[in-house]
Amino acid sequence: MKGLIIKDVFALRQQGKILLGLLAFYAFYSIMFENISMLAAMIVLLCVMLPLTTMAYDEKSKWEKYALSMPIERKTIVQSKYLFAIVAELIGVVIVGILSGLIVLFTDEMKIMEMLIMTLVIGGVGLVFLAIILPILFKFGVEKARFIMLIVVFIPTMLVMMIPHLDIVPPSIQIVKLFGYLSPLIILGLLMFSIKMSIAIYNRKEF
């Protein structure tokens, strides 16, 4: 599995300068407009998109046919994608935490605790998207899955934007706190279910 992850890292070398450029741009944007949430959301989104990029390279080079001719189990290939995606997401959260902390010190936009909570929430949302998106990628491939992924991102975004305009009673503080405490277990459960689903899909897939 280590070799599979290293392969994905090398596949992203061409995207390195682009990713660093985007990171610098959004960091500058956040400092100028004192908008930490934009920086956090974009960094986590970029990390979520990394597995899509590596899978696109795999499809283009027909790598999976070559990999399956070697003594590599299909579930190992699937697990390596998830591990790579989760590690990239965690690295993104750490980067967000460091940059947001520096911005908070210089701009005093929000309190440190609020910044940490925001970073963890956005990181959790990123992991949930990974749990949803990766089975779709394994099922339909990168090209066919792009449109489905747009819907997956678009619908929740629209629902969040519509909530203030709907006559919905917000949950109590106790419920919000309970959900916050349970969210790591919920996300872990979603990821485990997603991995099992992706392995089942990949085992039935023909190349």
The main β sheet shows up as:
none
Number of helices: 7
**Count of structural domains:** 1
- Tell me, what's the shape? globular
Strand-pairing-aware structural class = mainly alpha
**What string, H for helix and E for strand, traces the elements in order?**
HHHHHHH
Write down how many β-strands occur, each being a DSSP E stretch of 2 or more residues.
0
Output mean pLDDT: 77
Q: Overview of this structure, please?
A:
The protein has 7 helices and no strands. The protein has one domain (2-150, 172-204). The mean pLDDT is 77. It is an all-alpha fold. The two termini are 21 Å apart.
Task: Summarize it.
This protein is an all-alpha fold. Helix content is 86%, strand content 0%.
List the helices and strands and how they pair.
Elements lengths: L1 H10 L4 H18 L2 H26 L1 H6 L5 H34 L4 H51 L10 H32 L3
Helix pairs in contact: 1-5, 2-3, 3-5, 3-6, 5-6, 5-7, 6-7
Please name the defining characteristics of this protein.
single chain; about 210 residues; 7 helices; globular
